[in-house]
Amino acid sequence: MSFTDPAKNQPVTCPQCGSDVPQSPGRGRIKQFCNPSHGRSWRTRMRSAGWL
Ligand SMILES: [Zn+2]
Q1: Cα(12) to centroid of ligand 1, in Å?
Q2: How far apart are CA 33 and CA 22, in angstroms?
Q3: Where do the H-state alpha helices sit in 1-52?
Q4: Separation of CA 42 and ligand 1 centre (Å)
Q5: Which of 1, 5, 27, 33 has an alpha carbon within 20 to 30 A of 12's alpha carbon?
Q6: Any residues with CB less than 8 A from the CB of 14 and at least 6 apart, and which?
Q7: How many Å apart are CA 14 and CA 2, to the nearest integer?
Q8: pLDDT tens for each residue of 13-34
Q9: Residue 28 CA to ligand 1 centre (angstroms)
Q10: Helix and strand tally (H, E) in the chain?
Q11: Interval between CA 23 and ligand 1 midpoint (Å)
Q12: Burial tier of 42 (Cβ tally within 10 Å: 0-12, 13-18, 19+)
């Protein structure tokens, strides 16, 4: 069974460093960061900027 999730076909770039984030095929949430530490530092930056 193969159905494609349109959201996962979009190229994703890491907002922390701007590099491409490879998506693992299949179901699951979209990866937004190239590695977890970039996601963590990005969220820390957003929080310090008053977004959260
Ligand atoms: Zn990154």
Answers
A1: 11
A2: 9
A3: 6-9, 36-48
A4: 9
A5: 1
A6: 20, 21, 32, 33, 34, 38
A7: 27
A8: 999 999 999 888 888 888 889 9
A9: 20
A10: 2, 0
A11: 13
A12: middle
The rounded distance, in Å, linking the Cα atoms of 40 and 46 is 10
Structure token pair of residue 29: 């949430």
CB-based contacts of 26: which residues, under 8 Å, 6+ apart? none
**Would the pTM of this model clear 0.70, i.e. be above it?**
no
- 42-48 contact pairs (CB < 8 A, 24+): 42/15, 42/16
Sort 15 into a burial class: Cβ within 10 Å, 0-12 / 13-18 / 19+: middle
